[in-house]
Amino acid sequence: MSLVLDPAAQDLLFREARTANSFTDEPVGDEQLQAIYDLVKYGPTAFNQCPLRVTLVRSPEARERLVGHLAEGNRAKTAAAPLVAILSADNEFHEELPQLMPHAPQLKDAFFSERPVREGTAALNAALQAAYFIIGVRAAGLAAGPMTGLDFEGVRKEFLDDDHTPLMVVNIGRPGLDAAFPRSPRLAYEQVVTTV
């Protein structure tokens, strides 16, 4: 095999990793989250922009408010998950670019002075970072249950502001019994890759 990553790590991050639909009651601590962030913050984005924002839903009151904005099939598992994160795109990410690109501080105004441009690039790059976040959760030995079955505008109004666009909600914890559905098929290499 031509991959250099240890096969056990390949399994942990990809082959054996599954979307979790149930969790144990073991809590997810701040140190685990800090370790996840400290790993995934290095994932590449365009112009080193970092538009992903993570809102942790910890209190029972906040959890109840969130559950009301989820699709029916997502409510019970979110109510029971040890930790829930709302992942959103910060549409004002460009304010951080002089810090993130000190060798090119002019990028903030040269490329991102208009809100529609920022919204498009924030959505794309925050989605990349969300994928890194999910892999980071797996690298911590935890399971993630990302969901987009929700009232996005309701979540934005309830938990965010006009400068943030919700992308998904992610349940996080150690998987419970029968946490994953049977694995569905994947496309073959030949179905995905073409050469021109």
Characterization of the model:
- 43% of the residues lie in helices and 15% in strands.
- It contains nine helices and four strands.
- The chain has helices at 7-15, 30-40, 60-67, 72-80, 97-100, 107-112, 115-139, 152-159, 189-192, and strands at residues 52-57, 83-90, 143-147, 164-173.
- It has a four-stranded antiparallel sheet with strand order 1-2-4-3.
- Helix 1 (7-15) crosses helix 7 (115-139) and helix 2 (30-40) crosses helix 7.
- The protein is globular and about 50 Å long.
- It starts with 6 loop residues before the first helix and ends with a helix.
Describe the strand arrangement of the main beta sheet, using strand numbers: 1-2-4-3
- Kindly state the mean pLDDT as a whole number? 95
- Which stretches of 5+ consecutive residues score pLDDT under 50? none
Mass-distribution shape: globular
Helical stretch tally: 9
Share in helix: 40-55%
Helix and strand run? HHEHHEHHHEHEH
The total strand number stands at 4
Give the percentage of residues in beta strands. Answer: 5-15%
What gap, in angstroms, lies between the N and C termini?
25 Å
Largest sheet features: 4 strands, antiparallel
The chain-level structural class is: alpha+beta
> Using only CA atoms, what is the Rg?
18 Å
